[in-house]
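Supplementary Methods. Inverse-folding protocol.

Structures were first reduced to a discrete structure-token string of length 247. This string, shown here, constituted the complete conditioning input.
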């Protein structure tokens, strides 16, 4: 089995495994194996006191769970962070702060959450920060009637509207195909999104060459069509908003 992460808990070295086990080591010998998660363990963090002694262990996994342990590796609280609204449930990193009763959790899909270490609730209204997470951001367009808003699309199949002043996402939708181009209508009420994986066999999409028109207010689909089989790398509304071109 593959060892995916490692931490030092006082006199022990602890490794996380792809099988979801924690392996406890003394020297070169594995003296104990603990089934900690149902998925691969992706991160370990050991908080220490002022004297440098470990006060516990925090483990995280591809199963979307964060598990707390005592310094003697007795099981403690477990939290399902995948329920917080992330796109992908896999956890990429954790940092436990016992004095302030907080756990910082980074997700594979680029969200970062801060949760309470007793009850697991989200301390904030949504993620602290989030963004695109797979391959590239392929297109951006500014809102013609709101100078502080813009939209981005990318290979992660998401359409995200941002507030430039607040520096955060205000609306987002996950579509079923990689997105390659985007444009606002002149009145700012609609957003056109062109689909495509870029032409490579690895990322070929069923809807390559298709497109959708979204309602800007709630990002619901108001129209969908496919007139090409090639990736749509650019799009633009006419000045009067009556025509839409893709290339």
């Amino acid at each position: 089995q593959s060892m995916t992460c490692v931490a030092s808990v006082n006199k022990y070295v602890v490794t996380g495994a792809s099988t979801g086990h924690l392996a406890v080591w003394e020297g070169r010998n594995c003296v104990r194996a603990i089934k900690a998660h149902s998925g691969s363990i992706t991160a370990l963090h050991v908080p220490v006191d002022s004297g440098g002694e470990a006060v516990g262990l925090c483990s995280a996994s591809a199963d979307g769970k964060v598990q707390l342990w005592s310094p003697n590796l007795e099981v403690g609280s477990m939290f399902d962070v995948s329920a917080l609204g992330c796109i992908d449930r896999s956890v990429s990193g954790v940092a436990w702060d016992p004095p302030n009763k907080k756990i910082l959790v980074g997700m594979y899909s680029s969200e970062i959450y801060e949760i309470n270490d007793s009850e697991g609730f989200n301390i904030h209204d949504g993620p602290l920060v989030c963004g695109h997470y797979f391959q590239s951001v392929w297109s951006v367009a500014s809102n013609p009637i709101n100078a502080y808003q813009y939209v981005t699309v990318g290979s992660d199949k998401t359409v995200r509207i941002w507030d430039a002043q607040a520096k955060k996402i205000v609306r987002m939708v996950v579509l079923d195909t990689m997105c390659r181009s985007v444009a606002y209508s002149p009145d700012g009420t609609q957003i056109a999104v062109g689909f495509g994986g870029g032409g490579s066999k690895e990322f070929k999409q069923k809807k390559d060459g298709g497109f959708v028109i979204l309602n800007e207010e709630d990002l619901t689909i108001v129209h969908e069509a496919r007139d090409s089989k090639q990736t749509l790398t650019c799009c633009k509304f006419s000045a009067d908003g009556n025509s839409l071109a893709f290339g």
